[in-house]
Design brief:
Layout: H1 14-18, H2 20-39, H3 42-56, H4 61-65, H5 67-77, H6 80-117, H7 122-129, H8 133-147
Helix pairs in contact: 2-3, 3-5, 6-7, 6-8
């Protein structure tokens, strides 16, 4: 599968060339990003980018007719810092979930090792821990090796 980030404006991008609206929007966002660095103010960067698009005839009619609405919408929606924070928080959440899964897996293995040491039949250990018979055989070999 091939994925292309259309949020980064590239005038050689075939997908952007096929859609005038998408191309215009990508250009607008690229201008906002560029102007954020230049001006440091999101509101000023957005207004400058909209005016640049109007001057160049990119998405010209809609921003001309709805200038203030477009500025308000972009100020509400285009918050790169908030977007990055959301990605960060999502990453933390995914990390927690992965940690919980790993912890449960580790605990199941510990229980299985104890049950193997107590000579509990493998079928009961599989049902009790949810581990596969292959994993239990591997654990049993590891325990036998560590006893030597």
């Amino acid at each position: 599968m091939f994925v292309r980030n259309l949020g980064n404006y590239d005038n050689h991008n075939i997908a952007l060339k096929k859609s005038v609206s998408l191309n215009g929007y990508a250009y607008l966002i690229a201008e906002i990003r560029k102007n954020l660095i230049k001006f440091g103010s999101r509101d000023k960067a957005i207004k400058w980018a909209i005016n640049t698009c109007i001057e160049k005839g990119i998405l010209a009619e809609f921003p001309k007719k709805n200038y203030e609405g477009v500025v308000k919408m972009l100020n509400l929606e285009y918050d790169e810092e908030a977007a990055m924070m959301a990605k960060y928080e999502d990453g933390i959440e995914v990390g927690k979930e992965e940690g919980i899964i790993e912890g449960k897996e580790k605990r199941s293995r510990e229980i299985a090792e104890n049950m193997i040491k107590l000579k509990v039949p493998m079928e009961i250990i599989v049902k009790s821990t949810g581990l596969s018979i292959e994993t239990l055989v591997e654990l049993e070999k590891g325990l036998a090796y560590s006893r030597k």
